[in-house]
Amino acid sequence: MKSVTLLGSTGSIGRQALDVIQAFPERFRVTALAADRQVELLARQARAFQAETAVIGREALLPELRAALAGSGIRALAGMGALEEIAAAPCDVVLAAMVGAAGLRPLLAAARAGRTIALANKEPLVAAGAIVMETVRAYHATMIPVDSEPSAIFQCLQGQDRGGVAKLLITASGGALRDLTPAQLAAVTPEAALQHPTWTMGPKITIDSATLMNKGLEVIEAHWLFGVPLAQIDVLIHPQSIVHSLVEFRDGSLLAQLGLPSMRTPIQYALGYPERLPHNWAPLDLATIGSLTFAAPDFARFPCPALARAAALAGGDTPAVLNAANEEAVAAFLAHRIGFLDIPALVERALTAHRLTPEPSLEAILAADAATREMVGHWIGER
Ligand SMILES: NC(=O)c1ccc[n+]([C@@H]2O[C@H](COP(=O)([O-])OP(=O)(O)OC[C@H]3O[C@@H](n4cnc5c(N)ncnc54)[C@H](OP(=O)(O)O)[C@@H]3O)[C@@H](O)[C@H]2O)c1
Q1: How many domains does the chain divide into?
Q2: Is residue 274 part of a domain?
Q3: Which residues are near ligand 1 (CB < 6 Å)?
Q4: Which of 7, 78, 270, 314 is most buried as measured by Cβ atoms within 10 A of its Cβ?
Q5: Residues of the domain holding 325
Q6: Residue 111 belongs to a domain with what CATH number?
């Protein structure tokens, strides 16, 4: 029986993780759950899974959470300190499934407590990869990727000699807009960009998939998780989303992990690791799928992966600036305040304006994040 703390339980990953936990009542139990604003759903989940603690990110919502949990015996807490507290508290797995760099402090708290962390929340690793990985190493924490592409790479690397790795190939569906012309991209609405062809995910990552920023973030994520240089990590367009990523070895062999485009599989793998638990959905039928296709990405129409790579190569606090600018731009696009092509334009402008801090402390990264959000917010307001 593994005890699981779930940060971001009301989101797309969080709800699917609870489905997995529900499917294996003899394997998993919930210790604590956390969300940001969906009080009612959080309280229902906490009651249904008999959690010990429920945390709401927004402190103003604590009275509402307390009322929703009245008589249940479940502890109701709020705010960043409480998120850090449950991330560090004893449990077998902390599933980090909040969205954005907001998950950085709880992730570090879990790492400092030496926890096993199932990581879906990639933005903290993008913003502060060196600090997160140093903390994981120093406190003997364990990191198991949940994101389908890093999960695929993690699976392909099991039992392999790391010295034999030549390249990581991260696949991308290409998103909802992969065939549009630049003029069509300029006119894209949030509603259209939210129609992902193969995956059902939360709004931020769905827009990141449409801009291909998600691949840029995953290249940085894979660099930190697997210690592979950026020059040895490539992106490959694969519209069917069946091959979740590949590892090329120096003898020319490629290993790939295949599966249906459902996050249930990598979530279940990460929670059950090292054991593979049985699935209860239809198996992948390659004969029915027929063909799998691959193509090089078009970085001229979709500049975000190149911006992400440039930020990672610049190092220091630059990836934190990239991430913060992207989070603000995506939120403004979803709120109909800017156009689709303004997302890469704002990220590029933030990177151009940035003055590098080469070896930033956590405080310096948080300061760069905050300053970038303010600056990008100001630029959006001017439009
Ligand atoms: N969805 C996928 O299929 C997928 C695949 C691979 C990787 N990922 C990564 O997984 C992460 C989660 O993605 P998602 O699609 O599940 O996002 P989502 O549907 O937007 O859910 C985000 C979750 O985080 C909570 N949250 C946000 N800010 C918070 C804060 N400040 N304090 C506490 N809780 C907070 C939200 O609570 P409320 O609901 O109350 O706002 C919600 O539970 C992202 O980093 C994403 O890149 C997702």
Answers
A1: 3
A2: no
A3: 8-14, 34-38, 57, 83, 97-99, 102, 120-123, 147, 199, 201-202, 204-205, 263
A4: 7
A5: 315-383
A6: 3.40.50.720
